[in-house]
Design goal:
2% strand; 198 residues; mainly alpha; globular
């Protein structure tokens, strides 16, 4: 699937996230995640706005790009989808904890457009899958990169997973649940290994 608007979104994502990298031993450019999420969604939809929003789903959260600029550049439909996917890192000038950010994100998804749910599912699929691949044999580095509160991590992602399960159906949901189960087993293995050390 290709269009002029998608090409523009690819370019925008590359420029806006140009100095950002993914966590892990190899500092892959952050856009590899965005491209992977967008590409995976082409197996489930031919909606151009969904693919564009997938490419730009972290711009409001992680760059200086504004909602007004996004609306002007890619239209109101894309802006509404991306806004629903954007975690608020500050509220009333105070920094929001990781847990509260994720819980607020789940609430936004609950009331957001179905297109946002699709992107959230694909986003989590890619994050879970790459985490397992990256840290499968290096649990200590996972704990260094993501923290040691594993129960809280699973609880928060389960809250998001519940929203996705309540609003989505079909093959994308099946893939999400399959990969999420793998991720939960991975976290369980880390916990077990940590308990064994003591």
């Amino acid at each position: 699937m290709y269009s002029f608007r998608i090409e523009q979104a690819i370019r925008a994502a590359a420029v806006l996230h140009h100095d950002q990298t993914r966590k892990g031993a190899m500092p892959y450019p952050y856009v590899t995640h965005l491209y992977s999420v967008a590409l995976s969604l082409t197996a489930y939809t031919d909606d151009e706005n969904v693919i564009i929003a997938a490419l730009l789903h972290d711009t409001l959260e992680d760059t200086d790009y504004t909602l007004e600029e996004l609306t002007e550049d890619f239209g109101g439909t894309v802006a509404v989808i991306v806004d629903a996917l954007s975690e608020k890192k500050e509220l009333d000038g105070a920094k929001v904890s990781w847990t509260d950010r994720k819980k607020n994100y789940a609430k936004q998804l609950k009331n957001g457009p179905i297109e946002a749910i699709m992107i959230a599912a694909a986003d989590k699929i890619h994050n879970f899958r790459t985490s397992i691949e990256e840290y499968y044999e290096d649990h200590n580095r996972f704990l260094q990169d993501f923290g040691k509160n594993l129960d809280e991590r699973i609880e928060v992602y389960q809250t998001i997973g519940n929203v996705i399960n309540n609003r989505l159906n079909g093959p994308l949901l099946s893939e999400f649940n399959h990969v999420f189960d793998e991720y939960k087993h991975f976290i369980y293995d880390i916990k077990k290994a940590q308990e064994f050390k003591f």
